[in-house]
Amino acid sequence: MNTTQYRKLPESFYQKSALEIAPKLLGKLFIKKEEEQFLAGKIVEVEAYAGVDDEASHSFGGETKRNSVMFASGGALYVYFIYGNHYCANVVCDRKDVGAAVLIRAVEPISGAETMAHRRFQKSELTAKELINLTNGPGKICKAFNISKRDDGKNLCGEEIFIAEGEKILKNRIARTTRIGIQKSKELPWRFYLKESRFISAK
DNA sequence: ATCAAGATTACCT
DNA sequence: GGTAATCTTGATA
């Protein structure tokens, strides 16, 4: 097994609004190449964060040191640190200077689950419950994939972390709800997930 | 210099 | 169901 068999998404995929891109990311493969192996997860849950009219977005209120990558051209990886413990990975969308991104909230482990298990639970044999719990949250994904601040700003069209074509997902398999964990702009229905997936973070 | 909030998680009853 | 843990960031003085 190697990563060359995967069809990496082109830069043009990311040059659209976060709201347009978010549902299209479902079913795609989030991949990270490491020394002796690669890790892969099927994206099953995402949330869109826009530049304007979205008070919950880090980019609302303009560019700062922390959120600057959100204003890069679509196709960058935006990683932030939150609650003193966790990193969250986002796909930067739209043209340069538009602060928009999609938060990857949950993936289904496809490859490298043993490595992920070590990072999450310090062991390689998992119970069924632990497998479900491996990457079903934004902070859990970053822990499992070993993604941190050093990855902030990396190009998703590069060799290390990228997204590839996956399963074709029809509209009737996608659920749309309000976003999780935010205090402002709560009413916007900008969370998308695969209805049948057991690997989402919440119903 | 100080302070409050935060796109979460794990653990408790 | 609820909440403590944990610390960076950005705003204010």
First and last CA, distance: 34 Å
What is the overall number of helices?
4
Average pLDDT: 96
Low-confidence stretches: none
What is the ordering of alpha helices and beta strands? Answer: HEEEEEHHHEEE
Please state the overall shape, judged from the principal axes of the Cα atoms.
globular
Strand content: 25-35%
How would you describe what is shown here?
The radius of gyration is 16 Å and the shape is globular. The mean pLDDT is 96. Strands 1, 2, 3, 4, 5, 6, 7 and 8 form an eight-stranded antiparallel β-sheet that branches. The chain has helices at residues 18-25, 113-121, 128-132, 138-145, and strands spanning 29-33, 38-49, 77-82, 86-92, 101-111, 161-164, 174-177, 191-194. It has 203 residues and is of the alpha+beta class. Helix content is 15%, strand content 26%. A hairpin with a 3-residue loop joins β3 (77-82) and β4 (86-92). The structure holds a DNA duplex (13 and 13 nucleotides).
Indicate the topology.
Layout: H1 18-25, E1 29-33, E2 38-49, E3 77-82, E4 86-92, E5 101-111, H2 113-121, H3 128-132, H4 138-145, E6 161-164, E7 174-177, E8 191-194
The chain binds a DNA duplex (13 and 13 nucleotides) through strand 3, strand 4 and helix 4.
